[in-house]
Amino acid sequence: MSDVLVQRDDAVTTITMNRPQRRNALSREFLLALTEAFREAGRTDALGIVLAANGPVFSAGHDFADMAGASHADVRGLLQTCAELMRTIQAVPQVVVAQVHALATAAGCQLAVTCDLVVASENAGFAAPGGKGGWFCHTPMVAISHNVGRKRAMEMALTGDVVDARTAYEWGMVNRVVPAAELEKATRDLLDRATQGSPRSKALGKQAMYAQLDRTEADAYTYAIEVMAASSQTPEAQEGMTAFLEKRRPQWPA
């Protein structure tokens, strides 16, 4: 059985981590397989991607079997491989929703919160446990700190405690928290709403959102003005405006 399962259902591709015997730990091979699955999905006409997982946890983070005793260069390479997966998730044109059914720790938490949107079961939890041990969660905290405030990020990093799903929602890591039995439906409902409109416009919008997030407000406006002005000339933008004025449903170009 493959460690990464890919299923297409109408306009949605579901990528499922299927390494339950290792708690979906992110080995080098697993990271590469996930990255390739996202790249392949990104090249299709799917409108959205769901990242799900099988087993008792969403992901336990890096696989220490890869890292214990590894050289400085090998560990750096593994972390760069992980970062490439994160960049790929945010670079694909589709909306990516993490469907988190259980615990997501360290790089597993990084993976979940890197997705564009996150729907979590009430049974889910999020943690950067390096603060409890001897190897701090430096790279997972990049993604986590970009989603929560500084003090909350420091609390997660320093204590290593598990943050329950409701708290993760309040802190901004999660978009929805639902009972476990409703997780798949709630994920699909949010994805359906997030994929309305022109796919090409959505892809450009996603790219621009990530590009402006870490800029100063003035620089963000400068960048966003240029992108929005240029995108106003696309067939999708013109069709959207015309349809609004003519009080009809837009017909998006193929």
UniProtKB/TrEMBL annotation:
Cited function: May play a role in fatty acid biosynthesis and insulin sensitivity.
Organism in which the protein naturally occurs: Actinomadura fulvescens
Superkingdom in the source lineage: Bacteria
TM spans (from-to): none
Gene3D superfamilies documented for this protein: 2-enoyl-CoA Hydratase, Chain A, domain 1, Lyase 2-enoyl-coa Hydratase, Chain A, domain 2
Alphabetized UniProt keyword annotations: Fatty acid metabolism, Lipid metabolism, Transit peptide
Family: Belongs to the enoyl-CoA hydratase/isomerase family.
PANTHER family noted in UniProt: ENOYL-COA HYDRATASE DOMAIN-CONTAINING PROTEIN 3, MITOCHONDRIAL, PTHR43602
UniProt protein name: Enoyl-CoA hydratase domain-containing protein 3, mitochondrial
A Pfam family: ECH_1
